[in-house]
C-alpha cells in the first residue's frame, strides 16, 4: 500500500459524495491505484489509515471479498484480488438497467439550467486532449451525474455510484483509445441535442446505446488483455 494518498479527482468526489464508508474508501483507494492487485490488507494498518476501529474494516473487507475485490487465505491473509471479466460484465448489465431509468425521469423534468450545465460539461470534454483518459473519465462521470442527480430514488442513485466506483477500480488505469474517446463526445452531443429538443424517448434510446457501446468497448479491451496474459 502506497503511503501517499492521491487527491480525489472530480469523478471520485462525485462518486464518494456523502458515501464515506470504510468500504467506499478502500474501493476508492483501489480505483486510484493506492492499493493494487496483490497488496496485503492488514486490518490494523487499514484501521489506523482510515482512523477507525478494526470491526468496520473487517466488515468492509468481507463485503469486498464477496464482490471479488479481495481474496482471503489462511496463511497470507487478505489481499487485493486480480479482477475478473465477469465482475465488469455484471456491473455494466446493472448500469444498462439503471441509467435509462434515471434519464427517462430527467427528460421529463430537466430544467433549462441543468441542460445549460450539461452543455458546459460537454464543452469542457471537447477541450481535452484525446490522450487525457483520466480527464475523460472525470467529465464523463460529471456529465452523467448531472442527468441523474435530480432523481428522487436515492437508493438507486447510491447503487449507481457504487457500480461506477467499481468500474473505476476495474479499469481506472487503462487508457481510452482515440476512436472511443471521439465516439463518447459524439454520443453525448446526440443525447444533449435530443434532450433540448424534448424528444424524451429518443434520448433514452440514445443513452441506452451509449452505455452499451461503453460496455462493449471495455469488454473488448479486457478480453484482449486477458488473451495477452494467457499467451
Describe the structure.
The protein has 231 residues and is mostly helical. The chain has ten helices and two strands. The protein has helices at 10-16, 22-31, 43-49, 54-66, 85-109, 112-126, 133-148, 154-171, 178-196, 200-230; strands spanning 70-73, 77-80. Helix 1 (10-16) crosses helix 8 (154-171), helix 2 packs parallel to helix 8 and helix 6 (112-126) packs antiparallel against helix 9. Mean pLDDT is 88; it is low at 2-6.
State the gist of this model.
The protein is built from 10 helices and 2 strands, in the order ααααββαααααα.
Secondary-structure map with pairings?
Layout: H1 10-16, H2 22-31, H3 43-49, H4 54-66, E1 70-73, E2 77-80, H5 85-109, H6 112-126, H7 133-148, H8 154-171, H9 178-196, H10 200-230
Antiparallel strand pairs: 1-2
Helix pairs in contact: 1-7, 1-8, 2-4, 2-8, 3-4, 5-8, 5-10, 6-7, 6-9, 9-10
Search tags:
single chain; about 230 residues; mainly alpha; Four Helix Bundle (Hemerythrin (Met), subunit A); 2 domains; two-stranded antiparallel ribbon; 10 helices
CATH architecture of the largest domain: Up-down Bundle
Number of distinct beta strands: 2
- What's the arrangement of strands in the largest beta sheet? 1-2
Q: What is the CATH third-level topology name of the largest domain? A: Four Helix Bundle (Hemerythrin (Met), subunit A)
The helicity comes to 55-70%
Q: State the secondary-structure class.
A: mainly alpha
- How big a fraction of the residues is strand? under 5%
Span between termini: 29 Å
- State the order of secondary-structure elements, H for helix, E for strand: HHHHEEHHHHHH
Helical region count?
A: 10
Amino acid at each position: 500500500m502506497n503511503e501517499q494518498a492521491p487527491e480525489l479527482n472530480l469523478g471520485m468526489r462525485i462518486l464518494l459524495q456523502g458515501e464515506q464508508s470504510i468500504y467506499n474508501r478502500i474501493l476508492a483507494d483501489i480505483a486510484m491505484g493506492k492499493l493494487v492487485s496483490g497488496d496485503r490488507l492488514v486490518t490494523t494498518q487499514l484501521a489506523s489509515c482510515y482512523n477507525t476501529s478494526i470491526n468496520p474494516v473487517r466488515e468492509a473487507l468481507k463485503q469486498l471479498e464477496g464482490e471479488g475485490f479481495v481474496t482471503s487465505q489462511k496463511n497470507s491473509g487478505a489481499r487485493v484480488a486480480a479482477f475478473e471479466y465477469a465482475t465488469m460484465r455484471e456491473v455494466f448489465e446493472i448500469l444498462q438497467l439503471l441509467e435509462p431509468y434515471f434519464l427517462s425521469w430527467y427528460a421529463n423534468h430537466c430544467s433549462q439550467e441543468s441542460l445549460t450545465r450539461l452543455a458546459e460539461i460537454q464543452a469542457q470534454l471537447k477541450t481535452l486532449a484525446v490522450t487525457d483518459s483520466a480527464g475523460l473519465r472525470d467529465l464523463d462521470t460529471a456529465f452523467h451525474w448531472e442527468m441523474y442527480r435530480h432523481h428522487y430514488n436515492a437508493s438507486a442513485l447510491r447503487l449507481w455510484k457504487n457500480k461506477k466506483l467499481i468500474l473505476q477500480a476495474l479499469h481506472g488505469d487503462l487508457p481510452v483509445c482515440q476512436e472511443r474517446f471521439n465516439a463518447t463526445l459524439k454520443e453525448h452531443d446526440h443525447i444533449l441535442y435530443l434532450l433540448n429538443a424534448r424528444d424524451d424517448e429518443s434520448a433514452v434510446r440514445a443513452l441506452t446505446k451509449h452505455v452499451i457501446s461503453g460496455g462493449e468497448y471495455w469488454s473488448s479491451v479486457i478480453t484482449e488483455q486477458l488473451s495477452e496474459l494467457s499467451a
